[in-house]
Automatic annotation (TrEMBL):
GO terms for cellular component: extracellular region. GO terms for molecular function: serine-type endopeptidase activity. Keywords: Glycoprotein, Hydrolase, Protease, Secreted, Serine protease, Signal, Zymogen. Belongs to the peptidase S8 family. Residues 676-781 form the Subtilisin-like protease fibronectin type-III domain. The active site is at D147, H228, S561. Residues 36-115 form the Inhibitor I9 domain. The keyword Iron-sulfur does not apply. It is found in: Secreted. It holds the Pfam family Peptidase_S8. The lineage of its organism: Eukaryota, Viridiplantae, Streptophyta, Embryophyta, Tracheophyta. Residues 390-476 form the PA domain. InterPro entries: PA_dom_sf, PA_domain, Peptidase_S8/S53_dom, Peptidase_S8/S53_dom_sf, Peptidase_S8_Ser-AS, Peptidase_S8_subtilisin-rel, Peptidases_S8_3, S8pro/Inhibitor_I9. This is Subtilisin-like protease SBT1.6.
Length: 787
C-alpha cells in the first residue's frame, strides 16, 4: 500500500495483521480441519447454466478432493453490499477456490467484539425546538442496529401514538427462541439474527476459534442475552420513559436521540462467543435490502489491529451501504489513550469517539488518616455507613495477577473482611469486583494506572466500590506503605449534574492518527460515551456477570459503543429533516458545526492527562446537533470519489472490486491524491528528512445547503508555528444557479522551525462564514519519516 510505505509508523498498525496472515498461510497446508472463510466472487462471471448464484457457489465447492457435504457448508450468500459467500472449507477446498479465475479474494472469518438520559439535552436537543421539532423526532427514518439483539418489552420500544411503519420497510420480524412476530411493532419494525458463522467457527480450528453459541445463557433469536444491543438501540431511538434510573442513579426521563425513529435489530453478537465477520456481512446485506436509512454498528477488532479495507468486512459492508445512500456510524474503539488506537477508519464510515457529559456519580474514599480521595461508583447496595475497614493491597506481594485481582489470584486469608485495592487492567472491571467478593473482601477500590490516567468510569459492582484516578491511586498506595494498620471507608454521593468541565475526551476513546491512511483524520468527531443511561435486558444483571441476579430496566454503560448510537440517532434526525442529503453530507454537517470548547468555554481537554485535547483525540470536535441542522455548507462525496481515493492509495482495480462489488478502472498516470478526498478536514504530511520549506496543495469543494444567495469569507483560525497557510479564493459566492464552489489550500511547513507534539504533529483550523454560519475545518500538519 502506498500510504503505508510512506509512513513507517503505520507498520505498527499492520504488523499484527501480517503476523496472523503468515501464521495462517503456513498452517493451512498442514491442517485438514474445517475453517470458515468469506469468498468474494466476480458475480458477472456466473455461467448461464446456473439458475442462481447460490447454485453456482455450491458448484465451486464440489471438487474431486472436496470434503463430503461441501455444498451444505455454505453459511451465507451475499448479493447486495458484497458479492460472494461464506463457507466452512478444508485446506484443499481453500486452495482450489483461491486459484479459481472468478474468485477475487478469500479471507478468514474473524472474531470481533462490542466496543463496550441526560445525553440528548447535552447535545443541545430540547422538546419542540430545533432539530427535534424540524425532524418530528425522526419518525419517518429507520435505523438498523447491528449488535447483540434487543429486549423488545422495554418501555423504550413502545409504539404508542406512532404512525404506520414507513412504506420503505421490506424486512421481517424473524421468529426464534422466546421471540416472535408479536414482539415487533410500529417502533421495532423488524428483527433478525445471524449465527451461522459463529457456530461454524466453534466447530473448526485456527487462531480465531472461540465461537459457538452457549445455549444455556443465549437465545437463538433476536432476543438480547447480553444487554449491549438493547442499550445501544434505546440510545439511538428510545421513547420517552419517565422515572427511569439504574438503582436510583441518573433518575429522570430516559429517551433516545431520535425518539420517534423506527428500529430494526440485527443480532450478530452473541454472549461469550462474540461477533463474526461472516455474520456481520450478512447483516449488512439484509439491512440494506430491508430498507434502513441509517446503520449503527458499535463493533470492532478486539485490539487496535486494523486490516486493509479489502480484508475488513465492516469496511466492505459499510461501503455497500453508503453506496445505497445509507449513513453508517461506527465506534472508534476503546484502546485509548494510546496513539494510533482508533479503529473503523474507512473514509466512508463515520467514526465516533467518546466524551463525557455533565453528569457524574461521585464516591469518596476516606482514609484512616482523614485524607479524602475522589472517585466514582454506581454501587447501590447496603452502604458502609462510615465504618472504617482494614485496607489491603495484594499487589504488594509482587504478583502481577494479584495486583489486578485476577481470577484465583487473591488469598482469602489476606483479603477477607477488608477493602481490597485492585489495579485497573485491560479486562472487565466488574469481574475484578467479583473476584474480590468471592475471596471474602468487603469492598474494592479500583486504582487507575498511568495508561488510564485520570479517566474514571462508574460500574454497578455487587460490593461497595469506588474507582479512582492514577494520582489518587498513588496517594492511596503511599498511605498503605506509611502505616501498619491502614483503614478506609467509601461514601457514595449519588448523582451529580452540572459537572464542569464537560465534555472531556474519554481516556479510553480510540485516538488518531489513522494508521492505514494518515491523510484522513480519524476519529471524525466525538459524542457522549461515558456513564450513559439506556434500556437493559432482563436476561442478566447490570454487571453482565452470570452471578449477578439483579434485574434493572435501565443500565449505565461507558464506551465508544455508547457514543456511536448518539451519532446514529443524530443522523436519523438530519435525514428526516433533509431527506435528500447523502451520507457524506450528513457527516459533514456534524463535523463542520462541532464544538471545540467545553461548558466553561475553554478548549476541550483529554481526560487521561488533563491537558488540551487535539484533533487526534476528538476529530472535528464534539457533536452539536442544533447547529448541524443548518450547517450552511457541506463537503459531499460520491462512490466515484471513494474509488478515486482507493486508486490513490495504490489499490489495484481487482482489489478495489472486492470492496465496490463492480469492476473499476484506475487512471494511469494521474491518480487522485488521497489527501484530496473531499473530506471536512485536511491532513498535510511532510517529510522529516527534508530540511527547509516544503509545500503541499489541497483542493476542496463545498455545496451550499443554506440561503441560495450567500457569500462566504475564509478565516484562518489558527496556524502551527513554522507553518503558513494560504486559501484561494478567499471568498465563495453562491447563487440560485451556483450551488458548488471549489477552493485550494496551500500549506507550507519549514521542518527546521515546525513545532510538533509527542505524536509528531501540529494542529490548526480554518473556517468559512457568511455571518450566520461558521463552517469549521481542522488542519493537521504531520512530519513523517521515509522508510
Amino acid at each position: 500500500m502506498a500510504s503505508a510505505n510512506s509512513h513507517p509508523r503505520l507498520l505498527r498498525c499492520l504488523l499484527p495483521f501480517f503476523f496472523f496472515f503468515c501464521f495462517f498461510t503456513s498452517a493451512i497446508s498442514a491442517d485438514s480441519t474445517l475453517r470458515t472463510y468469506i469468498i468474494r466472487v466476480d458475480s458477472e462471471s456466473k455461467p448461464s447454466v446456473f439458475v442462481s448464484h447460490q447454485h453456482w457457489y455450491a458448484s465451486l465447492l464440489v471438487t474431486h478432493d472436496s470434503v463430503p457435504g461441501s455444498a451444505a457448508r455454505i453459511l451465507h450468500t451475499y448479493d447486495t453490499v458484497f458479492h460472494g459467500f461464506s463457507a466452512s472449507l478444508s485446506a484443499s477446498e481453500l486452495d482450489s477456490l483461491r486459484s479459481h479465475p472468478s474468485v477475487l479474494a478469500v479471507f478468514e472469518d474473524r472474531r470481533r467484539q462490542l466496543h463496550t438520559t441526560r445525553s440528548p439535552q447535552f447535545l443541545g436537543l430540547r422538546n419542540q425546538q430545533g432539530l427535534w421539532s424540524d425532524s418530528d423526532y425522526g419518525s419517518d427514518v429507520i435505523v438498523g442496529v447491528l449488535d447483540s439483539g434487543i429486549w423488545p418489552e422495554r418501555r423504550s420500544f413502545s409504539d404508542l401514538n406512532l404512525g404506520p411503519v414507513p412504506k420503505r420497510w421490506k424486512g421481517v420480524c424473524e421468529a426464534g427462541e422466546k421471540f416472535g412476530p408479536q414482539n415487533c411493532n410500529r417502533k421495532l419494525v423488524g428483527a433478525r439474527f445471524f449465527l451461522k458463522g459463529n457456530e461454524a467457527s466453534g466447530r473448526g480450528a485456527g487462531p480465531w476459534i472461540g465461537g459457538g453459541i452457549n445455549n444455556t445463557i443465549e437465545f437463538r433469536s433476536p432476543r438480547d442475552a447480553d444487554g449491549h444491543g438493547t442499550h445501544t438501540a434505546s440510545t439511538v431511538a428510545g421513547r420517552h420513559s419517565f422515572r427511569a434510573s439504574m438503582a436510583g442513579y441518573a433518575f429522570g426521563i430516559a429517551k433516545g436521540v431520535a425518539p420517534k425513529a423506527r428500529l430494526a435489530a440485527y443480532k450478530v453478537c452473541w454472549k461469550e462467543s462474540g461477533c463474526f465477520d461472516s455474520d456481520i456481512l450478512a447483516a449488512f446485506d439484509a439491512a440494506v435490502n430491508d430498507g434502513v436509512h441509517v446503520i449503527s454498528i458499535s463493533i470492532g477488532s478486539s485490539d487496535a489491529v486494523s486490516s486493509p479495507y479489502y480484508l475488513d468486512p465492516i469496511a466492505i459492508g459499510s461501503y455497500g451501504a453508503v453506496a445505497h445512500g445509507i449513513f453508517v456510524s461506527s465506534s472508534a474503539g476503546n484502546h485509548g489513550p494510546n496513539g494510533m488506537s482508533v479503529t473503523n477508519m474507512a473514509p466512508w464510515l463515520t467514526t465516533v469517539g467518546a466524551g463525557t457529559i455533565d453528569r457524574n456519580f461521585p464516591a469518596d474514599v476516606i482514609l484512616g488518616n482523614g485524607v479524602k480521595l475522589s472517585g466514582v461508583s454506581l454501587y447501590s447496595g447496603p452502604p458502609l455507613s462510615g465504618k472504617m475497614h482494614s485496607l489491603v493491597y495484594p499487589g504488594k506481594s509482587g504478583l502481577l495477577s494479584a495486583s489486578f485481582c485476577m481470577e484465583n489470584s487473591l488469598d482469602p486469608n489476606l483479603v477477607k473482611g477488608k477493602i481490597v485495592i485492585c489495579d485497573r487492567g485491560s479486562g472487565a472491571r466488574v469481574a475484578q469486583g467479583f473476584v474480590v467478593q468471592k475471596a471474602g473482601g468487603i469492598g474494592m477500590i479500583l486504582a487507575n494506572g498511568l495508561s488510564s490516567g485520570e479517566g474514571l468510569v462508574g460500574d454497578a459492582h455487587m460490593i461497595p466500590n469506588a474507582a479512582i484516578g492514577a494520582s489518587e491511586g498513588d496517594s492511596l498506595k503511599a498511605y498503605i506503605s506509611s502505616t501498619t494498620h491502614p483503614t478506609a471507608t467509601i461514601e457514595f454521593r449519588g448523582t451529580q449534574i452540572g459537572i464542569k468541565p464537560a465534555p472531556v475526551v474519554a481516556s479510553f476513546s480510540g485516538r488518531g492518527p489513522n494508521c492505514l491512511n494518515p491523510e484522513i483524520l480519524k476519529p471524525d468527531l466525538i459524542a457522549p460515551g461515558v456513564n450513559i443511561l439506556a434500556a437493559w435486558t432482563d436476561a442478566i444483571g447490570p454487571t453482565g456477570l452470570e452471578s449477578d441476579r439483579r434485574k434493572t430496566e435501565f443500565n449505565i454503560l461507558s464506551g465508544t459503543s455508547m457514543a456511536c448510537p448518539h451519532v446514529s440517532g443524530a443522523a436519523a434526525l438530519l435525514k428526516s429533516a433533509h431527506p435528500d442529503w447523502s451520507p457524506a453530507a450528513i457527516r459533514s454537517a456534524m463535523m463542520t458545526t462541532a464544538n471545540l470548547l467545553d461548558n466553561i468555554l475553554q478548549p476541550m481537554t483529554d481526560e487521561s492527562t488533563g491537558k488540551p485535547a487535539t484533533p487526534y483525540d476528538f476529530g472535528a470536535g464534539h457533536i452539536n446537533l442544533n447547529r448541524a441542522l443548518d450547517p450552511g455548507l457541506v463537503y459531499d462525496l460520491t462512490s466515484d470519489d471513494y474509488v478515486n481515493f482507493l486508486c490513490g492509495i495504490g489499490y489495484s482495480s481487482k482489489v478495489i472490486q472486492v470492496i465496490t462489488r463492480f469492476p473499476v478502472s484506475c487512471p494511469g498516470a494521474r491518480k487522485s491524491l488521497p489527501e484530496n478526498l473531499n473530506y471536512p478536514s485536511i491532513t498535510a504530511l511532510f517529510s522529516s528528512s527534508k530540511a527547509g520549506a516544503q509545500s503541499k496543495s489541497f483542493t476542496r469543494t463545498v455545496t451550499n445547503v443554506g440561503d441560495p444567495k450567500s457569500v462566504y469569507q475564509v478565516k484562518v483560525e489558527s496556524v502551527p508555528k513554522g507553518v503558513s497557510m494560504t486559501v484561494n479564493p478567499t471568498m465563495l459566492v453562491f447563487s440560485e444557479s451556483v450551488k458548488k464552489q471549489s477552493y485550494t489550500v496551500i500549506i507550507k511547513a519549514n521542518t527546521n522551525s515546525l513545532t510538533v507534539d509527542y505524536s509528531g504533529s501540529a494542529f490548526g483550523s480554518m473556517s468559512w462564514s457568511d455571518g450566520k454560519h461558521v463552517v469549521m475545518n481542522p488542519i493537521v500538519v504531520t512530519q513523517v519519516s521515509p522508510l
